[in-house]
């Protein structure tokens, strides 16, 4: 029997890659061979990258974490300007990523390191298609909280009554295992137009999750979300594996932490739009002006 080899597959966005890297380090420390792959591009700055190398390896405890770029065939080159449009990226992944991943799995097997398990995160449904095609079991890593996963699951499966978009932000929402919430607290993805390509992917993945994945690994821990986890276990095999945080420090991070420590409690506004939202220059300027007009300190992560 071959040694366990876990392949981690990410959508090509930094906020998706980082939790997988943290999970990969934990798995590798258990004397496992772990590989991580995604589509490299100029906007994705990874700590392991060295020059133009398509692969890198890191020793973690008694195990190994190796990075393999998903490339070849019709996959765009890293400097392709089309990576700037998230919608173009989504369509490109749907067209070519599954075949590229099957090729990577075959190359790993030919090299004597057959993949025995795949873990993919949200917006990488092509990873589950590729794993199924080659007969490798798979799990999903849900990068957000169990509460958010439960909201999506109950909404898209119509298991709980949710207020309509025009019901107002004060309309109450009751989901098993979660505290009562107002409609204004719900994730924006719930009410995006149905033709929105990323919403379509989210709906498809949530509805097919139990068929595609043996487990749903969630970036949380029991002490934080005990009741949400317990309630969702009635619907899917969730397993808390968090918090998935990279503990490496750099000077910029230290300066940011020192600045935050010097601010009064509950005084800082944190702003982050993730990897998919793209603001125009005018929108950026309007957002900055609005933040400045509050007179509150703010931290804007891009």
From TrEMBL:
The organism's place on the tree of life at top rank: Eukaryota
Single Gene Ontology MF annotation: quercetin 7-O-glucosyltransferase activity
Transmembrane annotation, as ranges: none
Protein family according to the UniProt entry: Belongs to the UDP-glycosyltransferase family.
Protein name, as recorded: UDP-glycosyltransferases domain-containing protein
Species, as recorded: Panicum hallii
